[in-house]
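Residues and backbone
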Amino acid sequence: MHPMFSRLRLPFVLVLAFASVLPAQDAAPADRAARARSSAVRVGEPAPPLKVAEWVKGAPLAGWEPGKVHVVEFWAVWCGPCIANIPHLNALERRHARDGLVVIGMTSPDLPAGYSGNRREGNSLAMVRDFVARRGDGMAYRVAYDTPDRATWRSLMGSRSGIPHAFVFDRAGRLAVEFHPTFLDDAIEQVLAGTWDAVGGPARLEAGYQRYVYALNARKYETFAANYAAVAREFPGAAKRLYLLRFGHALRAGEMADARAAARDLVAQARELQDAKELGAAVRQAARELAAARASGVGGLLPAAAVRDLRELLGGMASVAAEVAAGLEPAAWAAQAELANLDGDLPGAIAAQEKVLGTISESGKGREAEQRRLEELRQAWQAEKRRQDLMRATGRPD
């Protein structure tokens, strides 16, 4: 076993330090109202003609390929959960391309052709081209832009409006299943294997979705753990989307065996997806909470061995995040910044936080918050230097 997962014991005072370790829950599946609306194609029906204005990425398809399983996910450049799902789609295609899986990211203009109102187009072809170009190898499947009259949207989505939403067509070209893509990894594997239950499967998806929502909204560790276990038994692919929450809940409850297990899963997932966002976020939040506990005075009650072991765990996770990110993921640099701050290395924290900003465009989401964090670290360093100067001037030991 890697030393980063060595046995830890978390005392009660350290449990209290992680009261707010849980991350924001902003990537839940589509809401009930969106899912209740009707798609234009039903399970068992043949796929409608594939109409595309431009294949933005990947070899163009003239139509549905016989004998292949096709996944069509509707997304947009402004859709946060859609963007969060990109690494998962990459991994799906890498894992199953040889089995005949074809993944298509289908995106449509927000405004219909001929629109003359005051709304602005938020998902134009130019925007999509730019987004895909900036993602580079980080978006490794086909990307298609719908026709000006949104023909593919209308032929599949119908009256649905919530995205991301995905359709899976079996090897015979018929709709096998549709749902929010969070829950489709497991179903896709079964469609590929020819074992998907088109009759009972949708009810199982709905039940799993309910458990997933309960886990997302759980405040108590026991509630989260029970619902997470139910999701993991039935939909292990969907359970992967809960690893970050599992890590935070386990730290909050002082359940270090579960925290170590969640850390292992986060590390494995980061390597599988080639994406360090969640792994870095887990380290960043935990390091900030531990630093806050120390600053509040609770830190003086923490056994040194427990803090040392937890710091080792976080350090190992941060190292993997840095390896996977190759300098391109803000969350990996942010993890390094918060660990340096935890260690009292404010110059190192500032340098790493500057790297965070270096990976975010001037208009990028979250840049303002990261700039504020950089200023906080700089102010802390200035205050520390004034304290050190005062100590030297008065001849007091530091």
Notes: Residues 199-240 form one domain. The longest helix spans residues 367-394. Residues 1-7, 24-36 have pLDDT under 50 and may be disordered.
